[in-house]
Amino acid sequence: MNTGSDEPGEVAVSADDETGKKTDETKDGQGLGSRAPEFVKARRLLHLSWQVLIFVIGLAVVVAGIIMLPLPGPGWVVIFGGMAIWATEFVWAQLVLRWTKRKVTEAAQRALDPEVRRRNIILTVIGLVIVAAILGVYLWKFGFEMPWNIKNQ
Prior knowledge:
Elements: E1 15-16, E2 22-23, H1 38-41, H2 44-68, H3 75-87, H4 91-111, H5 114-142
Antiparallel strand pairs: 1-2
Helix pairs in contact: 2-3, 3-4
């Protein structure tokens, strides 16, 4: 999976800052890596426990989102929420989230293209006309009777 941008020369992992220390800054200014509080990062066992907790909470949210896909509920929103929880602690989740955000932005830009919008509006109007015609034929033939109440017609 390509997690970088389409621009050549961008480094998505690390760069040197003015002190000579390695940082995980990227082009957009947000660093990669753990966003845990400093007192948690300072203690290895506490930081590992913190990461396990974040992983378990994120996993629970992602699983709930997957369950919501076929059931009523905002499945994809919850899945991306779980990814955002993971992204607070894990670089791989941050990269996946950035890639997803970029793809959604590109899709939104394509959808706002005037030709695409015109085509979508035309297709929507055609679909609505077809649905109205089917509904009109049903009402003309059966009236306001529910389909399960219609006797052998």
